[in-house]
Design a protein that fits this description.
Residues 9-63 form the HTH cro/C1-type domain. This protein has 193 residues and is of the alpha+beta class. It contains 6 helices and 10 strands; from the N terminus they run αααααββαββββββββ. The chain has helices at residues 6-15, 20-27, 31-38, 46-56, 60-63, 100-103; strands spanning 83-86, 90-98, 108-115, 120-123, 131-138, 141-145, 148-152, 157-161, 166-170, 176-183. The strands form 2 sheets. The protein has a 6-stranded antiparallel beta sheet. Strands 4-9-6-7 form a 4-stranded antiparallel beta sheet, with no helix packed on it. The longest helix is centred in the first third of the chain and has 11 residues, at 46-56.
């Protein structure tokens, strides 16, 4: 990637009413080099950039303020969500999966889960590494983590370390709909709660 400092350096120089020669003399470089940098013809070496910043009294944060502002964004349209169905009337719709290895940081995955009446997901035998956070969108849920059970209504949320066995069950008369986040990602759709 070729980052362009020229416009900012020129703007500061002109705002301070300095000539190319004055800036070049202060920075200890040639007037031609300053001109080429301002026109983005060359990318300055770090020591040259530091000398120019010093000569113009520019804060380095200002010079780099636009660097890496653009980030990759993953969009999943509602009609393109990957889905997975589990026995007992549980539908997982993947909203996002950002894997740690490809992102260079902790990963995360998010699901919109629909659990039919009397349905449940999760396991009483074991948990998995990481954390989970869920919000009830519609219906009534019973969340069991370890040996404790919690009742959750629309708008209620729960977060917990997922290394304990945990089960999310529909405790209402209609479908239970939840928004659920798991970190780090489990890697396969529907492998969290």
């Amino acid at each position: 990637m070729h980052y362009r400092f020229g416009e900012k350096i020129r703007a500061v120089r002109e705002r301070r009413s300095l000539t190319l020669k004055e800036v070049a003399d202060r920075a200890g470089v040639s007037e031609s080099l300053v001109s080429q940098i301002e026109r983005n013809r060359v990318s300055p070496a770090i020591d040259t950039l530091l000398s120019l910043a010093e000569a113009l009294d520019i804060d380095l944060e200002y010079l780099f303020s636009d660097f890496r502002r653009e980030r990759a964004v993953q969009i999943v349209h509602v009609d393109e969500r990957p889905t997975f169905t589990r026995p007992g009337g549980v539908l997982y719709e993947r909203l996002a999966q950002l894997d740690a290895a490809s992102q260079g940081q902790d990963g995360i995955e998010a699901y919109y889960i629909t659990i039919e009446k009397n349905g449940k997901t999760g396991g009483k035998e074991y948990g998995h590494r990481g954390w989970e956070l869920g919000v009830v969108v519609e219906g009534t849920a019973e969340l069991t983590v370890g040996t404790k059970t919690y009742r959750l209504n629309p708008g209620d949320s729960a977060s917990f370390r997922s290394d304990a066995p945990h089960v999310l069950a529909n405790a209402g008369e209609g479908p239970l709909k939840v928004f659920w986040i798991i970190t780090p990602p489990k890697g396969e759709i529907g492998s969290g709660v």
